[in-house]
Amino acid sequence: MRLSNAFIPTLRESNQDKESISASLMLRSGLIRMLTSGVYVYLPSGYKALKKIQSIIREELDKVGCQELLLSVLQPIELWKLTGRDKELGQTLICFNDRKSRTLCLGPTHEEVITDLIKNNLFSYRQLPLIVYQIQTKFRDEIRPRAGLMRSCEFIMKDAYSFDIDDEGLDKNYRRMCDCYKKIFSRCGLNSYMLEADPGVIGGSMSHEFMVMSESGEDKLFFCESCDTAFAYQEGKSAMCPECKKSLVTKNAIELGHTFKLGTKYSKVQNATILDDQGKRRTLIMGCYGIGVSRLLPAIIDVHHDDKGIIWPKQVSPFDVAIVVIDISKPEALAFANKLYSQLESSSKDVLLDDRDVRAGVKFNDIDLIGAPIRVIIGKDWENSKEIEISLRGEKNTTLKTKEVDALENILSLIEK
Amino acid sequence: MRLSNAFIPTLRESNQDKESISASLMLRSGLIRMLTSGVYVYLPSGYKALKKIQSIIREELDKVGCQELLLSVLQPIELWKLTGRDKELGQTLICFNDRKSRTLCLGPTHEEVITDLIKNNLFSYRQLPLIVYQIQTKFRDEIRPRAGLMRSCEFIMKDAYSFDIDDEGLDKNYRRMCDCYKKIFSRCGLNSYMLEADPGVIGGSMSHEFMVMSESGEDKLFFCESCDTAFAYQEGKSAMCPECKKSLVTKNAIELGHTFKLGTKYSKVQNATILDDQGKRRTLIMGCYGIGVSRLLPAIIDVHHDDKGIIWPKQVSPFDVAIVVIDISKPEALAFANKLYSQLESSSKDVLLDDRDVRAGVKFNDIDLIGAPIRVIIGKDWENSKEIEISLRGEKNTTLKTKEVDALENILSLIEK
Asked: How many CA atoms lie within 13 A of B25 on its CB side?
């Protein structure tokens, strides 16, 4: 994209969400905008990053045999009455009556729907084990939406559901999904910690949260700096690490994902059964596995930024590389920038080219704010030196001067590194 | 995917939607399921096809410089009151009050939201022309939902919006988008016709519909068989082709897309303006361009099927190739099928492998129903002959017998053809 006509409205200051660094940076770097309290729109570069996160999730889940589908936003209230969760969620569940007086709700989660679907469409135990997932927009009527995408009324989740004939199958799938989660978060540039959690309104016998440490996180946990392990936080108690016997420290963290061994909580009430190989009717054993997809964006930014802006991890950056032409009134410099831009785009790289007619200071500020991992500067002296400067956003003192002829190769090798 | 544990629940007969061939085939071939009237879920193979359609749309729009973003489902009612469209849409617009008595609606379209966004975030006329688009789930409280995905309460649309400083800019963008639409539909296997249409509740000075001829289409149009041109249908009138002066015939058709020259309909009321290069304040000139993404699925199937099932056009088929092992009790045959499956998957092809322990008749029926363009049969005689049969779903008498050693190459060349 060329910044001259890209829709990336950067801001010098943000009045919204002073409370959160990531929310402020997302607004200032033109990734998102708030439409109304708790409701956000993704601008082009924000949506680019989101799609990269989604691709990583799809790749890792597909690798372990999960099948993607897409459930509906609209759900009949009858399914929720069956499990009693309409009462449990209370006002958080958004409901309305349609013109035929049918009561529908906007899915905040999809356990009931998937259980109903599998119940009606699973024909043989031989199709088990089965894990299906979706990346879907979900809705909650939040009392206090806050911090941009961290807690909003409309958000994007990846939710997966496993179905097994017995507990051993569930245990196996559960381990598989937890391993997969570590990989997904790691590829997103997040070092995640898995810790036991309260199953809450989702339910089941066992549950784990996946957390990333971040000063601005709204969750708290205990952390052992000696053995690099995280533990659930209990209010008002200091604690010792059960392994090292060393004192635990309190850390702020952001919840990235949550997994649940549901067992038969839903399948029993909804009567989701299958005949086993002995012809005996068995209630399906379920697991469910969520990732807050839209929340990953602020989580990544919370962890990866400095006082100038975002420092995107390579795999999820909206742009692989940003090219800045300091003085666009120099035709040779602009011509070279355009050539480099086309060559990189032909290699399927996402490139941002700052070809605006603005001061160098504005360009440097914006490029730091937007945070592409690799920055290429075509300076004022181009016509004489034919040299460009390549630097890494995250590292100081890494500026590499390179001649025109080597520029493309050097940039490509930095992207692949 | 291996049919033994893929979640592709094929049905011999369908009781739902007898009225529509595509709706019936989508249910029977395991692409979708109805959750409640007008609300559908996409099963894995249905969602695969949908994602391929979305990729084609993205590729073609990105090529002409459109920028993808993602607006919200939830919209504040105030925006709709400003344009008066809350009244115009009436009960079709789904509204609810949240716990803070804020009235929100579920977007059936996004003209108000995008106008508001651009108004607040476009800083210079130099960013124009600008075209943004999204692929988004939309909602309508339909009086009579029908024919599966043809007219449902929850559906997926691609909506694009162009912004220009003058009418000449709009004309240029409008032509660009219409050309783009022809390419998109063509890549989806649909021969589309563009004809003038009533702007209706969207509004503006000029509007075109993109239609595909289909016997089961719910729209009607006049068609000139001599010059291959379509005209809007006026009730009760027979007509002559203005070019050829020949009689027009009436045809059924499905609406795939709709484009509108909005002009200043929204920007004027919402006060979306920009200073031009003379420092003069100008009201933005808008166009809007919709494609019924989820509707393309039944449209494609309506056009491409026979009495046995779907005949997917290559580019949008959930599977590039289907491999059928007639007798899975033969280990050599199964081993070869697995090898071929892995090789094709490594070449990034979507492969369906029927490795189920069911009768040959069931396999043939399902594979025709599911409709992959290329079918590979590993027959009962494999251990002796080491020959496989490759045939094209859409063409009779195209069976090619090939030896083991040539199988992969032959299949790959058919996929690429």
From this structure: 25
Residue A409 burial (10 A CB sphere; 0-12, 13-18, 19+): exposed
| Shared domain check, A98 and A184 | yes
Whether A264 and A284 have beta carbons less than 8 Å apart is answered as yes
pLDDT band at A237 (very low <50, low <70, confident <90, very high): low
Domains: count for chain A:
2
Q: Which domain holds residue A370?
A: 319-416
| A218 and A350 both lie in a single domain | no
Tell whether the model's pLDDT for residue B128 goes beyond 60. Answer: yes
For testing the chain B interface, which of A14, A127, A142, A358 should be mutated: the one with the most B CBs within 10 Å? A127
Cα dist from A183 to A58, A61, A158, A177, A253, whole Å: 12, 10, 15, 10, 19
Distance CA(B349)–CA(B343), nearest Å, equals 9
Whether A18 shows a pLDDT value over 70: the answer reads no
* Res A238: pLDDT: 66
Contact assessment for residue B177 and residue B184, using Cβ atoms and an 8 Å cutoff: no
Residue the block writes with tokens 């016998």: A205
Question: In degrees rounded to 5, what are phi and psi of residue B335?
Answer: -65, -45
Verify that B263 and B334 share a domain, yes or no.
Answer: no
Please report the number of interchain residue pairs, chain A to chain B, with beta-carbon separation below 8 angstroms. 164
B367-402: pLDDT as tens digits: 999 999 999 999 998 989 899 999 999 888 778 898
Which residues from A are below 8 Å from B106, CB to CB? 106
| Spatial distance between the Cα atoms of B212 and A159, rounded to a whole number of angstroms | 36
Q: Please calculate the CA angle A229-A233-A237 and round it to the nearest 5 degrees.
A: 110
Residue A253 CA to residue A223 CA, distance in Å, equals 10
ipTM for this model: 0.96
Pairwise CB contact (< 8 Å): A143 & B5: no
Alpha carbon distance B262, B85 (integer Å) = 14
How many angstroms away from the CA of A373 is the closest CA of chain B? 22
Do A227 and A288 belong to one domain? yes
Report the alpha-carbon distance of residue B376 to residue B400 in Å, rounded.
10
Whole-prediction pTM: 0.96
Q: Are residues A64 and A196 in the same domain?
A: yes
Count of C-beta atoms within a 10 Å radius of residue B149: 29
* Contact present, A13 and A28 (Cβ < 8 Å): yes
Residues B150 and B267 reside in one and the same domain:
yes
